[in-house]
Fold this sequence. Notes:
The complex is a heterodimer of chains A (about 300) and B (about 230).
Chain A: H1 2-19, H2 21-57, E1 61-65, H3 71-82, E2 87-93, H4 95-105, H5 110-119, E3 127-132, H6 138-145, H7 153-156, E4 159-162, H8 164-210, H9 212-220, H10 225-266, H11 271-277, H12 279-306
Antiparallel strand pairs in A: 1-3, 1-4, 2-3
Helix pairs in contact in A: 1-2, 1-10, 2-8, 2-10, 2-12, 8-12, 10-11, 10-12
Chain B: E1 2-10, E2 16-25, E3 30-34, H1 41-49, E4 56-61, E5 64-65, H2 74-78, E6 81-85, H3 96-106, H4 111-124, H5 140-152, E7 158-162, H6 170-185, E8 189-194, H7 197-203, E9 206-211, E10 214-219
Parallel strand pairs in B: 3-8, 3-9, 6-7, 7-8
Antiparallel strand pairs in B: 1-2, 1-4, 4-5, 9-10
Helix pairs in contact in B: 3-4, 3-5, 4-5, 5-6
Amino acid sequence: MLWTTLKRIIKSGFISFWRNGSVSLSAVFVMIVALFMIGSTVLLTAFLGTGLKDLQDKIDINVYLDATAQEAQILDLKSKIEMLSEVKSVTYTTRDMALETFKARHIDDHRIIQALDEVGDNPLTAVLTIKAKDPAQYEGIASFLEGKAEISPDALSVVNKVNYNDNKVAIDRLSKLIAGVRKLGSIITAVMVGISILITFNTIRLAIFIARDEIGVMRLVGGSNEYIRGPFVVEGILYGLVAAVLTLIFFYPLTYWLKSATQVFYGGIDLLHYFVANFVQMFFIIIFSGMALGAVSSYLAVRKYLTAR
Amino acid sequence: MIYFENVSKIYPDGTIALEGATLSIKQGEFVSIVGHSGAGKTTLVKLLLGEDQPTGGSVSFDSVDIQNVRAKDMPDLRRRMGVIFQDFRLLPNKTAYENVAFAMEVAGKSDEEIASDVPHVLELVGLSKKMWNFPRQLSGGELQRVAIARAIVNHPDLIIADEPTGNLDPVNTYEIVQILKKVNDMGTTVILTTHNRGVVEALGKRVITMDHGKITRDDMTGKYAL
């Protein structure tokens, strides 16, 4: 019996979606706009997030070590730094490696190469490059390295210079910017999702308002509330599903069109690449939002006409 | 079977639609209720259907006080009454067949029962050739036949026809009344509200006359006394 009822409700929803063609079409169009807003906000914030993460990864502090520092002392210091909970990674660049990198960078500048040759000895020092888990934590790490926190003087004695203070302003500003953009992103997402819910709900409410007389007839014939409501909910889900599929299709040419613009913006990745790479996630977000929006809106909109006896 | 006991209905704006109406209708009767517009005929029907609540008195159907029926039991009660309206009230996006089948679906009938009963009842009202037409493709008389088919398909105990011939020409009016008579002959109680003198006199059945919310006459054999 339950199965028969469910089958009839689903069938009736499909039939009325098809036969109320113009109403369905308008509802689908409005939902495309709503889902498009949700989708593009999600896509842009996620894309922005990746960009910010890239930017964040470029921040680090360098610890320049004394030329006389022994390998064992350096490794001891490295392991001590690695033990700090704020530290994500520590990279050790030996004096020789530093020289290699320097030479490679200035290979076309023969005056510098010549000057290096004249010095004879390797003038560069070994460097420990530290990346923090969060840009806000660099301050703490720097103060640790400057001996303000507890550390064995033995290990700290090899530190010549920490470049944090030179870049302090830039790091601070960048970490504030990243936090600000994140916060703004979530506010915009919330507003967009709110607007989408409102326009979808109102459109479906209008669609059901058109059918209010039919609801009255169904009640008079003896239809139970669930049996009357069911097909409307199925119809709502269909609006959402169709709109979601169309929205996903529209996203492809759009991101393709924005490809070059976003590539310039970030250098490496572009929006199209990001959309394609995260398609499965986007697919589920859009489809689920569409179906949930349609179903909940229909459920609530029909309820109004079912409250009386 | 149906009892109205001292029923009154006063709308919030002060309009008195029914005043001290008392009547009883027995199983198998064919009762016409006549009166001018605003006499209270439709209010009577609405109270019986549970669409409205009386201000005073009580309305009962098969010993059930309609105003005390809980909202979730209302559909069960309504499936025992078939309703026919002047404006047909069919579902516009369903075919004649589907409109009739809908009444059976909500009553939880099986697909097999629906497939055998719906064509049969549409044949009974003379519409077997237009089974798959939508309401917009049917004439007034045909629409009312679909409505009757829908009302009788679940074999209800009572048929309530509220001005069913109000929008129809004399030929269709005659035919619709004949169908109702046939339904009544099969044992179903019929309540017909109308202001068509011809219909009432041709029927020769019980007539209740209403005026300004009051029952003014109750004749056992048809007379249109207005």
